[in-house]
UniProtKB/TrEMBL annotation:
<dbReference type="GO" id="GO:0016491">
    <property type="term" value="F:oxidoreductase activity"/>
</dbReference>
<dbReference type="InterPro" id="IPR012318">
    <property type="entry name" value="HTH_CRP"/>
</dbReference>
<feature type="domain" description="HTH crp-type">
    <location>
        <begin position="213"/>
        <end position="286"/>
    </location>
</feature>
<dbReference type="InterPro" id="IPR014710">
    <property type="entry name" value="RmlC-like_jellyroll"/>
</dbReference>
<dbReference type="Pfam" id="PF00027">
    <property type="entry name" value="cNMP_binding"/>
</dbReference>
<dbReference type="InterPro" id="IPR003952">
    <property type="entry name" value="FRD_SDH_FAD_BS"/>
</dbReference>
<dbReference type="InterPro" id="IPR036390">
    <property type="entry name" value="WH_DNA-bd_sf"/>
</dbReference>
<dbReference type="InterPro" id="IPR000595">
    <property type="entry name" value="cNMP-bd_dom"/>
</dbReference>
<dbReference type="Pfam" id="PF13545">
    <property type="entry name" value="HTH_Crp_2"/>
</dbReference>
<dbReference type="GO" id="GO:0005829">
    <property type="term" value="C:cytosol"/>
</dbReference>
<dbReference type="GO" id="GO:0003700">
    <property type="term" value="F:DNA-binding transcription factor activity"/>
</dbReference>
<keyword id="KW-0804">Transcription</keyword>
<dbReference type="InterPro" id="IPR018490">
    <property type="entry name" value="cNMP-bd_dom_sf"/>
</dbReference>
<keyword id="KW-0805">Transcription regulation</keyword>
<dbReference type="GO" id="GO:0003677">
    <property type="term" value="F:DNA binding"/>
</dbReference>
<keyword id="KW-0238">DNA-binding</keyword>
<dbReference type="InterPro" id="IPR050397">
    <property type="entry name" value="Env_Response_Regulators"/>
</dbReference>
Amino acid sequence: MCVGRSLKWGLRGGSAILGGFLADCASQSKRLSRSHTGSAQGGKVNGNADKVGASTNANIRYGPKTAPLGNDLALLYPPPALDDDSLLKLNSLVRPVHCLPRRRAILYRAGTPCQAIYAVNSGAMKSYRITAAGEQQVAAFHLPGEFLGLSGLARGYHPFSAEALQLTSICVLPFERLSELAHEVPALQRQLLRLLSSTIAREERLWEAMTGHSADRRLAFMLIDLRRRLPSRRTAPDELRLPMSRAELGSCAGLAAETTSRVLRRFERSGWISSSGRTIVLRRPEALRRLVGGEAREAAARSSAAPDGARQQR
């Protein structure tokens, strides 16, 4: 089912759809899990060049229960949305964990069954795929308070692999229990629908920012976006301590590592940023915003000025 299409039907209709959708996901993930049991490591799934290993969930170390907080998690936990009883049920479902306590640990691999969604409590993750040429292409970064694993909802398997960029703790929300609880608590269905809508909107913003724009504009957008999403110190809100390498940052923007370095040096010469290792200070964030906004307006103007046939071809 197309989740985006169901959003415009409104929360009431969407909630009913979401309940059935989650049940289908849980059922499908069970079937896929059974079909993957006993499969050899290193196989290829659906032509994906990424290697599929055994599930890494057995290696997750479970920690004490805590109340999850953060950007996406706040969509599940706004105080007026759920009563005390519903919050207790949801808290019993969410399992905070300390996941694979080392950098570059794999949470799941592309092609493995999607049996849960995950929320980052602390640290950072990246989603990526391996291209036909054998190169790693970063699809997204997942920062504290954000979810990952949602792209496997409709498919029943993960289309991307997920890797920890640093020591990372996560919450696990199993599909089967989430489906059952969504039927018991209608307000939770509405909150999950908001979560899916928010995730789709964030992916659309990233896609629009990366499509048909210059390398400078793409990287400016990434820096402004990370400034908004990364935890910041109150005394230095414009200082970004990147959990990812510059090559990974560029990969998410569709840029080669050399291009990324060249653009960042150009930003430094312009006085827009200063950098040392993985720390980048936005000296003139308004200049980066103007670059992002200016190119967006120019692209919109070109699109509106183009003949109808040309717009359709694009």
